[in-house]
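Input record, target 12 of the design panel.
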């Protein structure tokens, strides 16, 4: 599951361990992400205990039981007032604030369900992340509101958010955990780029490049942010190693950009 570059940070290493091979754990990966990307770090043990506690209080081990506890009893809900707050992408902060965005709330629902014996999975529908039910493949949860919907409801949601775009039933297929984490990191990347917060952007991209399916473009984003921060030598080293990870035009482009940065340092 991991890429070839190995940053030395302890939190990066914990992230790499969480996403490694058959041991991939969505809760551990999401909390390692939070620990690395939050300026304050994350209480990982405390967050895992919170997930355990929530699951232990589900009296009916069904999808409806999970939804009832989290959305009616505990008051989890989508953050409509401050949607692009980075805290909405950090699972420990979602647990503390009872607020999040669809994908982080989906991770919460999936992991509480798993602990309670309710088999759920992520559904990466473009524009709005959903949760699917392994028992009844025609049932989905909108994690932003806690609403239980069917395929028609999912299609209606898609059309409201992306008018004119054709809907494909494959949008309701299961999304692998690694792709869930990549999408969480991509959300953070876009937020930090928009806010021009290069220090936070670097933290998110340090994890993104650990994922096997990381696009080569993310190395370029990381190098650009490091260069802006005056860490040009680090930027060049990342690009050099990235040029060995990819092939063809991507490799050549990365190597050329690394050479350009090294030339500026000589």
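The sequence produced for target 12 reads:
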């Amino acid at each position: 599951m991991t890429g070839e570059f190995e940053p030395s940070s302890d939190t990066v290493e914990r992230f790499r361990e969480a996403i490694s091979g058959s041991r991939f754990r969505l809760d551990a990966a999401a909390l390692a992400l939070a620990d690395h990307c939050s300026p304050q770090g994350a209480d990982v043990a405390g967050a895992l205990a919170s997930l355990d506690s929530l699951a232990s209080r589900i009296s009916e081990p069904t999808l409806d039981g999970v939804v009832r506890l989290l959305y009616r009893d505990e008051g989890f809900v989508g953050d409509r007032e401050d949607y692009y707050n980075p805290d909405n992408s950090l699972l420990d902060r979602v647990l503390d604030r009872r607020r999040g965005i669809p994908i982080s709330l989906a991770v919460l629902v999936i992991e509480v369900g798993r602990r309670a014996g309710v088999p759920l999975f992520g559904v990466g529908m473009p524009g709005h992340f959903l949760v699917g039910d392994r028992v009844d493949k025609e049932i989905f949860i909108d994690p932003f509101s806690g609403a239980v919907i069917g395929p028609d409801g999912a299609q209606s949601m898609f059309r409201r958010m992306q008018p004119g775009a054709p809907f494909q039933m494959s949008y309701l297929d299961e999304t692998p955990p690694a792709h869930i984490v990549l999408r969480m990191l991509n959300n953070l990347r876009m937020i930090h780029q928009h806010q021009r917060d290069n220090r936070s952007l670097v933290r998110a991209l340090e994890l993104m490049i650990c994922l096997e399916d990381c696009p080569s473009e993310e190395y370029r984003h990381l190098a650009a942010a490091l260069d802006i921060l005056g860490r040009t030598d680090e930027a060049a080293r990342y690009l050099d190693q990235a040029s060995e990870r990819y092939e063809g035009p991507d490799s050549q482009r990365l190597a050329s950009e690394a050479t350009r940065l090294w030339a500026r340092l000589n």
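The chain has two domains: 10-172, 177-265.
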